[in-house]
Design brief:
This protein has two domains: about 90 residues, UreE, C-terminal domain (Alpha-Beta Plaits, 2-Layer Sandwich), CATH 3.30.70.790; about 60 residues, no CATH class. Helices cover about 45% and strands about 25% of the residues. A three-stranded antiparallel β-sheet has the order 1-3-2.
Length: about 170
């Protein structure tokens, strides 16, 4: 099995990997590697690879002009305060005047920028969401020269499935 994009000297690559086991969740794969580590197997010869990737998008809410405006003001506000603190280090002006001035400018800029950006979407995406890429299977790979020993040891794992390679 070759992993595209990884250079041959990469620590994330085995020379001649063979499949040792496939699990439905990462905890099971981790448990098998931990079991092998406890049996003093050279675990640097193992790899856990998430396969069958899928992208999950969780819709968190509807976007409205008011939500966009509040978000823009808040993001501009924190940026303005940060810039104000930096300016305050290099100026003799009153700290509060600098902070209030930069906070106001930042909030105004954030508001305008957010509303313009939202207007350009023309309603094509009127919702907010978070996304994540997850694996649906986890395969434990082992260097070919240690595969037989790893399978033999893993057969002793409580609740282990019969070895499909035997």
């Amino acid at each position: 099995m070759s992993t595209p994009g990884l250079n041959p000297a990469s620590p994330l690559k085995l020379q001649f990997p063979q499949s040792l086991a496939v699990y439905d969740d990462y905890a099971q794969a981790q448990k098998s590697v931990d079991f092998l580590a406890d049996a003093e197997f050279p675990v640097e010869q193992l790899m856990i690879v998430g396969t069958d990737l899928k992208r999950i998008e969780r819709v968190t809410g509807r976007l409205t002009w008011s939500k966009i405006a509040v978000g823009g003001i808040l993001s501009g506000l924190w940026l303005g305060i940060f810039i104000g603190l930096v300016f305050a280090l290099f100026t003799e002006e009153n700290l509060w005047q600098v902070l209030l001035g930069t906070a106001f400018i930042g909030a105004t800029f954030g508001l305008v920028w957010a509303l313009i950006g939202y207007a350009f979407t023309r309603g094509q995406r009127d919702f907010s969401s978070i996304t994540q890429v997850v694996a649906t299977k986890y395969e434990v790979l082992v260097e070919h020269k240690e595969a037989a020993r790893a399978r033999e040891l893993l057969a002793g794992l409580p609740g282990a499935l019969p070895d499909p390679f035997a």
